[in-house]
């Protein structure tokens, strides 16, 4: 059964290929639609977006929300911080200090937001793991080592167990705090960050964004596939469905012959069955790992961003299709 975080989102799936909202309307109507809301096609290849953000400029500050730690008690240990929506858990725990009374120095703008921030000290540890209870497409913080020296730090950003990207910086402990921040695509939201370095350290100005997530390839692009002579519709089902703010993530699992070109699509309709979003993925089915079995499964992820919060909730109907197709991607035989 698919994971459905919104009981107002209903599923319509079967093994007959394209399930259009208007019965009898061919797929080509949506593939070649002139309406920009319908013609939202993901790239042939699943891209992995990871962009670093080096300074807390206006764009970064305006696109993120800061978790305020100024009211935490100086000298006290904390295993998590929260703003009531996002919660960041720490392992090991951290100690709240303030610059300059508890932590000697920090950098000043434009390298940081403030020269005298409240900070969270790693308590002598050279590493710190941050777990986010709400996956985020932008996450960042400022960091400064304890020694007055140049210290190298490596920060790894994860989506579950998948490493999305890594930032390595040499940071000076004498008023040298620097921003460690990154943006990802909606396919690989951050929910864990691991900091390792050559000394103990403090972090400050923890910021995140969970709603304004870009999707790789969300700009409309032409669809070039056509039906092959061995065209047939394929069994497909929604294996995961989740929403976070304005972001809807739909995972569909397809069963087809190994090493075959396929086109997989998801159509989003409103409660009156009017189509409002449409995306197609072109790709290859993987090779079978069992010599006697020619059929394999593969999961494709689709991300849709809406104007309003989906989890308010917004009633939606999700319909799918899958076909063997012809296009310019070689599938190894």
Largest sheet: 12 strands, antiparallel
User: What is the H/E order?
Assistant: EEHEHEEEEEEEEEEEEEEEEEE
Mean pLDDT: 79
- CATH topology annotation of the largest domain: Jelly Rolls
Q: What spatial form do the alpha-carbon principal axes imply? A: elongated
Supply Rg.
23 Å
What structural category characterises the helix and strand content?
A: mainly beta
Question: How many DSSP-defined strands?
Answer: 21
From the coordinates shown, what is the CATH architecture of the largest domain? Answer: Sandwich
Poorly predicted sequence stretches spanning 5 or more consecutive residues:
1-8, 11-48, 217-229
Report the CATH C-level class of the largest domain: Mainly Beta
Terminal Cα span: 32 Å
The oligomeric state is: single chain
Short summary:
By secondary structure, the protein is mainly β.
Task: Kindly describe this structure.
It is a single chain. This protein has helices at residues 28-31, 58-62; strands spanning 3-4, 9-12, 50-53, 65-66, 77-82, 87-98, 118-121, 127-136, 138-145, 150-159, 162-172, 178-184, 190-197, 201-209, 226-227, 236-244, 247-257, 261-270, 275-284, 295-305, 316-326. β10 (150-159) and β11 (162-172) form a beta hairpin. It has 333 residues and is an all-beta fold. Helices cover 3% and strands 48% of the residues. The strands form three sheets. Strands 3, 4, 5, 6, 7, 8, 9, 10, 11, 12, 13 and 14 form a twelve-stranded antiparallel sheet that branches. Strands 2, 15, 18, 19 and 21 form a five-stranded mixed sheet that branches. Strands 1-16-17-20 form a four-stranded mixed sheet, with no helix packed on it.
